[in-house]
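Protocol step 4 of 6: record predicted structures for both targets in the notebook before any analysis. Target 1:
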Amino acid sequence: MFQKMIGGAFVLAAVLVAGQAQANEEAEKLAQNNACTACHGIDNKIVGPAYKDVAAKYADDSDALAKVKNSIKNGGKGKWGEIPMPAQPQLSDEQITLLAEWILGLK
């Protein structure tokens, strides 16, 4: 019985990891297809901050997801410098959430 429980836990963990990997891949592709990567690198600043720097800035912020989603949807200026970030109104709420969760997960 115990072995079945452990085996089931490993299967569940593998499914969750595979699901997260697929979500990360979808988010990265979404960022590339919407020109986000023209201004943001994962590890390096291009025009805007590196995604890992965004994740670090909001690491202890309980409103991080809402703030990052708002920046993606509506754009912004002044959080990282004077160059404005354009709004991404063509993205659905689901796509914005996927991107924001991916960015915040890049710790």
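Target 2:
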Amino acid sequence: MAEKVEKVGVKRESGYLYFIDKQGDVSRALMARGGKKGGKPSKVTKVGLKKEKGYLYFIDKQGDISRSVMSRGGKKKAKKAKKTAKKKTVKKVSKKKTVKKSVKKGKRK
């Protein structure tokens, strides 16, 4: 569940991507559509939010800044699974098949 961090009340326009930049301010960039490239980000509101590690910050439906706990997975789970699955692998020796050549007997000219 998300918790509100800061009340900003940003009014959104369609065609723009709204996000919290590295400085903790609300910014927006023009979205890429139909072969057109996106635009450079521009600041909408200065907030100066200090981000904490382990949280995902986003702009909610009301235009305020909210955060939720990041669910981490993948790497740690993969390492644990790899450690438990690690066993000695024995190389199987395969026998070589010999191909017999058949000689046709017949008349030579």
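Step 5 preliminary note on target 2. The CA atoms of residues 102 and 108 lie 17 Å apart. Strands lie at 3-6, 16-20, 26-30, 42-45, 55-59, 65-69.
Proceed to step 6 after PI sign-off.
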